[in-house]
């Protein structure tokens, strides 16, 4: 076991900052313990690793323990995971420059969730696979597929991790998954092919910055604006990567900021004053925005295992 103590500059909400990396309840790569500790596994450049993150509130210090060949890498990159590179001061200055015309709800949420940061994992393919699994299906179905595939092909988490935690498989492993196991997981052939093809380019994707990664990702079959944004939000900590094409997000943004629903074009227009931090705004609205009344039909669950 290796350990690191890190004191962040300014307020930091560790739980909310790390939350986007969790893929539903029972995520094999994530656990939230009763004592408040967050456990996470990662396929690092140095091998598999497990990290446990806690906060000593009185001293305002983050304490992390890590195990496995990737322990050193996970501890070294801990500050980035928790948003040390996030230019939150630029966002605060932007809101200040916008003056009274800025949406009052944005001001309120920015103050209420002042410890929220946009962190980055630095692992593109690890963020891409679950994003592809979430394409055009409800979260419950995607998360079930994620659990099944990691349970089947992920290796046990190093160290004293909670039971059934697994480490994200290497790209070569994703290429070897047979068609019948994709089917058992509930991922149809289109999403399976997208992941397998992306695994061939994993090395190039890992080496790219956010803008270049966007170009490379969207050049791959089956990956569009939404999947690229969801990936870069987590892997690169891109505070401006908007999830255009999301089933719920335009309605959330429109209802929160204007009291009415809107579409992708209307959402981008509402977010335009916050360019550079548009994803951050959507995160704030997800935490404390106003959702439209649930009057229409919900998106249907499609269990591809029965097809």
From TrEMBL:
PANTHER family: DNA GLYCOSYLASE, DNA-3-METHYLADENINE GLYCOSYLASE
UniProt feature, compositional bias: Basic and acidic residues: 1-10
Residue segments, region Disordered: 1-32
Name of the molecule in the record: DNA-3-methyladenine glycosylase family protein
The entry's keywords: DNA damage, DNA repair
């Amino acid at each position: 076991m290796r350990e690191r103590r890190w004191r962040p500059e300014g307020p930091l909400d560790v739980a909310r900052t790390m939350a986007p990396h969790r893929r539903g309840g029972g995520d094999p790569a994530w656990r939230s313990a009763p004592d408040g500790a967050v456990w996470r596994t990662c396929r690092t450049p140095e091998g598999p690793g497990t990290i446990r993150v806690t906060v000593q509130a009185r001293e305002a210090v983050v304490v992390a323990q890590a195990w496995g060949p990737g322990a050193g890498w996970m501890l070294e990159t801990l500050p980035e995971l928790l948003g040390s590179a996030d230019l939150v001061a630029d966002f605060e200055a932007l809101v200040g420059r916008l003056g009274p015309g800025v949406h009052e709800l944005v001001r309120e949420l920015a103050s209420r969730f002042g410890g929220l940061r946009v962190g980055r994992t630095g692992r593109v393919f690890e963020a891409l696979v679950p994003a592809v699994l979430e394409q055009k299906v409800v979260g419950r179905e995607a998360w079930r597929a994620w659990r099944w595939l990691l349970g089947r092909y992920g290796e046990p988490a190093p160290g004293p991790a909670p039971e059934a935690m697994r480490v994200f498989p290497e790209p070569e492993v994703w290429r070897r998954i047979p068609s019948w196991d994709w089917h058992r997981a509930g991922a149809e052939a289109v999403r399976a092919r997208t992941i397998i093809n992306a695994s061939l380019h994993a090395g190039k994707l890992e080496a790219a910055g956010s803008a270049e990664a966007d170009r490379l990702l969207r050049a791959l079959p089956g990956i569009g604006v939404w999947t690229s944004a969801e990936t870069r939000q987590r892997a690169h900590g891109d505070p401006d990567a908007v999830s255009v094409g999301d089933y719920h997000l335009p309605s959330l943004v429109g209802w929160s900021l204007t009291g009415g629903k809107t579409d992708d074009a209307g959402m981008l227009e509402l977010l335009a004053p916050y360019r550079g931090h548009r994803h951050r705004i959507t995160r704030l609205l997800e935490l404390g925005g106003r959702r439209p009344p649930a009057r229409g039909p919900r998106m249907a669950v499609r269990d591809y295992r029965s097809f």
